[in-house]
Amino acid sequence: MRTESSHQRAAELPYDLAHLLSHAERRLVRRLAELLAVEGCTVEQWRVLSAVADGGGHPMTEIAEYALLPAPSLTKLVDRMVADNLVYRGPDPEDRRRVLLYPAARGRALHRRAAQRIAADQSALRAALPADPADLARALADLSEALNSSFDATTSPGGQGG
Prior knowledge:
3-stranded antiparallel β-sheet; about 160 residues; mainly alpha
């Protein structure tokens, strides 16, 4: 039986950056979800816990952006996480009208356990990455920034953006 490496198959496929990134993201998130399920945690909860893991308190808008969730969905999720004693809300010491989110002791412990599982899994995936995985991380961050800042509807195919 002949087996082909993913690099050989990829070389035969047309280069479609959006498809390749989407495919990798879906598989990675599915893998992450399976790892987190062992801890009784969802990917969305993990993202919230990761956003507040430094303990410094973060506004909901910042967490929504990091967790890739719309504000109403984040509010519902955080309400459940507060009820589960994973996070808690507190006033911003600089602006008492604003609410910040902090990790509760139970949330810090969950984050620590899950982070160990994820780090072990990601170290196993490193063989599929460039020699320095930070190069890929920088390239993806640069791509994300370019996509965020450089899109102009007038440069889309067809001229004036529709």
